[in-house]
């Protein structure tokens, strides 16, 4: 279980402009040295994107690649957390609630007048990032924050589901000032790579299906009785050992086909 980043943002109620970063703490030590700069930029970009699309007084969770991005907008003051899939959702929102409480206790309503991103560290946020790596610490807060039981958490399958109609993450990447040219190139390259891998999977499956179809037609043409046959039983028959490989094709196509449909559903 890991928390990678915590952010506090000022969000406009109407979503007319991008949120302002009030505080930001991240731990990217588990990434390669040359990746860390781009990872920090993507954290800010995704955090700003999700925060902007979280309605006032609502909580939502968004799956983005291997991360769960949790967001809580409290009347324009918004906390966003990047956790892995194993970090409990309710513990995540308990932590975000505590972060907002601490921010208002320390800064009051001064955040409402902030116009530009704050680059100065907020010590509490860095401490929370370390302390609450253990969900048990957040669970202690959960016992106090009973209002979470009465608040609906909106769960989204992917980050695309929180975007407005007609919006695409790729176009937001191109327009974002949070990402350097290098990070934008990396993002585009990753999307192209994923599309290419999906294409290879589809091409491989349909090629094997086509080959199997030819094998079945050959068996049917040599079936003198011209009666319907069970292809699996036919291949298992001792007289047709040469067709054993086709049986393996049938099994593999069923397996690969199931994987393919699952991938198409989550793309």
TrEMBL record:
Record's Pfam families? Answer: Longin (PF13774), Synaptobrevin (PF00957)
GO cellular component assignments: Golgi apparatus; membrane
Transcription regulation as UniProt keyword: no
Tell me one GO biological process term.
endoplasmic reticulum to Golgi vesicle-mediated transport
Q: Which InterPro entries match?
A: Longin-like_dom_sf, Longin_dom, Synaptobrevin-like, V_SNARE_CC
Task: Name all Longin domain ranges.
Answer: 7-108
| UniProtKB keywords | Coiled coil, Lipoprotein, Membrane, Methylation, Palmitate, Prenylation
Q: Where would you find this protein in the cell?
A: Endomembrane system
| V-SNARE coiled-coil homology domain ranges (all copies) | 140-199
> What membrane topology is annotated for this entry?
Lipid-anchor
Q: Does the keyword Transport apply?
A: no
Q: SMART domains from the xrefs?
A: Longin (SM01270)
Q: Which GO terms describe its molecular function?
A: SNAP receptor activity
Q: Which family does it belong to?
A: Belongs to the synaptobrevin family.
Q: What is the name of the protein in this document?
A: Longin domain-containing protein
What are the leading ranks of the lineage? Answer: Eukaryota, Viridiplantae, Streptophyta, Embryophyta, Tracheophyta
